[in-house]
Design goal:
There is one protein chain. The chain has about 150 residues and is α/β, with parallel strands linked by helices. The protein has a single domain, classed as Cupredoxins -  blue copper proteins (Immunoglobulin-like), CATH 2.60.40. Helix content is about 25%, strand content about 30%. The chain contains 3 helices and 8 strands; from the N terminus they run αβββαβαββββ. It has a 5-stranded mixed beta sheet, covered by helices on one side. The longest helix has 22 residues, at about 1-25.
Length: about 150
């Protein structure tokens, strides 16, 4: 009987540990009508083979007026990608099409909407400098933060 109880307890502990690891590979970030993300930094573990970023627009304004997306690039490419996004226009969600500098991106969403993107960390490195931002024209100046990969 004691052996069965120990086995059940070990199974529960391992199960909960896996949930914690899985949860660390997913992050929710919110954008609002005041041109703000609620996070300035997103930290992901290098043990995640892929990560999911959930974007929630907590405002009320429509996507064509105050739309937000989530874009990830190397920090050195951030400004060039943001400017190219403006040229890409709304039909491309303000993200330059087939641009290798874009690591991941979501669609533009308006108030009350949600979207997500899942991508691999395989080509990203610990200690490298990455920036996430909203590429809706002009938003990238304020709506940005650091994307950090840790051990």
């Amino acid at each position: 009987m004691m052996k069965i109880i120990k086995t059940v307890l070990i199974t529960l502990i391992v199960s909960q540990a896996n949930s914690v690891v899985a949860a660390s590979c997913e992050q929710t970030i919110e954008g609002n009508d005041m041109l703000q993300f609620n996070l300035k930094e997103i930290v992901m573990s290098s043990t995640c083979s892929e990560v999911t970023i959930n974007l929630k627009h907590t405002g009320q304004l429509a996507g064509n007026i105050m739309g937000h997306n989530w874009v990830l690039s190397k920090t050195e490419d951030f400004m060039a990608v943001a400017l190219a996004g403006g040229s890409a226009g709304p039909s491309e969600n303000y993200v330059p099409l087939n641009d290798s500098r874009v690591i991941a991106s979501t669609v533009i969403i308006g108030g009350g909407e949600e979207t997500s993107v899942t991508f691999s960390l395989a080509s990203l490195g610990i200690g490298e400098d990455y920036t996430f931002f909203c590429s809706f024209p002009g938003h990238y100046a304020i709506m940005k933060g650091a994307f950090i990969i840790t051990n």
